[in-house]
Amino acid sequence: MRTEHRVINANASDMSEIKNESIALVVTSPPYPMIEMWDDCFCGQDARIIGDLQNGKGTIAFEWMHQILDRVWHEVDRVVIPGGIVCVNIGDATRTVNGVFQMFSNHSRIISTFHNMGYCVLPDVIWRKPSNSPNKFMGSGMYPAGAYVTYEHEYILIFRKGDKRAFTSDKKMRQRSAYFWEERNIWFSDLWDIKGIRQKVDKKTDRARSAAFPFEIPYRLINMYSIFGDTVLDPFAGTGTTMLAAMAAGRNSIGIDIEPTFVNYSISAMQKDPQVLNRYTETRLQAHQRFIETLSQAQQEKCYQNENYPFLVKTRQEVKAFFPIISESEPAENGVYCRYHPSAMRSASV
Ligand SMILES: C[S@@+](CC[C@H](N)C(=O)[O-])C[C@H]1O[C@@H](n2cnc3c(N)ncnc32)[C@H](O)[C@@H]1O
């Protein structure tokens, strides 16, 4: 098994290097409209925004920013296969404009775009990110009614292009791509409690601007919504977290970013020693074995034998499940090729 991963420096409103209907899954997090750290990014793409922000026309600036994202969402629609899934991580913005504190609902604006493009809007996930800040409560303190609810969550919006994807010739690949029963129970819940991770971008300014999501987010989504052989796209690739997760999960990937600094950063991240990525897979295998050990004798007797590993699984659907371990990665133009151990038994953890 071999996968390919590359990053392209471009504005994702024109992804002409990517063929029509060639992408099975999009996992991405765009710059967040009306969050100040992204003002320069949006102003650089539409000169009208700066004037509107300076003149206190927050609602208009919000709309221009979303129109920049809309152009990318329409291009995403061109490259996604029928039945393909688009996952968008987005937070709403709270901001004082013209002296008035208010919320700008990015998630509902993006849902509206996908709805208008004819996508099926699926149940979303709330990613809860608790804040430890002592000043997290804003407004009038203990006096009614001028205090504001603290925002400690983001959304993972999930959309499907049309009807359910049909798996025919790739039915076996789908069975091989199964996840564990106990993972399903956590991954398909609507509340994910995942801590943000400090990113290792070299310069402080880049770290501040990267706003990278934790590896666990794209890794779960890729396992939940794609199969081996698929290509995953991140049109706002940043530090390349989605591509790293695709490497670990044994899917192909393409990233796009408008900033050359981030493109270079993600290429070098992908070309590092893949053993770090293998640890995520090995941790999953170990967690599964611990889970099986917690089952009573009677429960274990109702389990099934996985065909690739010497462990039991809860359901018949997990019998062919395979968890790829990267054997080597080879630098390619703007990315890497990964090869995987053909046998599941390479993993020392099983
Ligand atoms: C929130 S960050 C993505 C972070 C990424 N998920 C990670 O883990 O590092 C948004 C990224 O979108 C990029 N960007 C903004 N506008 C873009 C556009 N029109 N086309 C492509 N990339 C864009 C920014 O340079 C930034 O790297």
Description:
- The protein has twelve helices and 16 strands.
- The protein has 350 residues and is α/β, with parallel strands linked by helices.
- The chain has two domains: 2-259, Rossmann fold (3-Layer(aba) Sandwich), CATH 3.40.50.150; 278-341, no CATH class.
- The strands form four sheets. It has a ten-stranded mixed β-sheet with strand order 10-6-9-3-2-11-12-1-16-15, with helices on both faces. Strands 4-5 form a two-stranded antiparallel ribbon.
- 37% of the residues are buried.
- The protein binds S-adenosylmethionine.
* Apparent shape: globular
- The radius of gyration computed from the alpha-carbon positions, rounded to a whole number of angstroms, is 21 Å
- Kindly report the name of the CATH homologous superfamily of the largest domain: Vaccinia Virus protein VP39
Alpha carbon gap, first and last residue = 20 Å
Helix content: 25-40%
Task: Give the mean pLDDT.
Answer: 94
SS class: alpha/beta
**How do the SSEs run, as a string of H and E?**
EEHHHEEEHEEEEHHEHHEHEHHHEEEE
DSSP, total strands: 16
Q: Report the portion of residues in β strands.
A: 15-25%
Cofactors, ions, other ligands = S-adenosylmethionine
Biggest sheet layout: 10 strands, mixed
Task: Note the total helix count.
Answer: 12
Number of domains: 2
Which segments are poorly predicted (pLDDT under 50) over 5 or more consecutive residues?
none
CATH topology of the largest domain: Rossmann fold
CATH architecture assignment name of the largest domain? 3-Layer(aba) Sandwich
CATH class of the largest domain reads Alpha Beta
**Quaternary status of these chains?**
single chain
Strand order of the largest sheet: 10-6-9-3-2-11-12-1-16-15
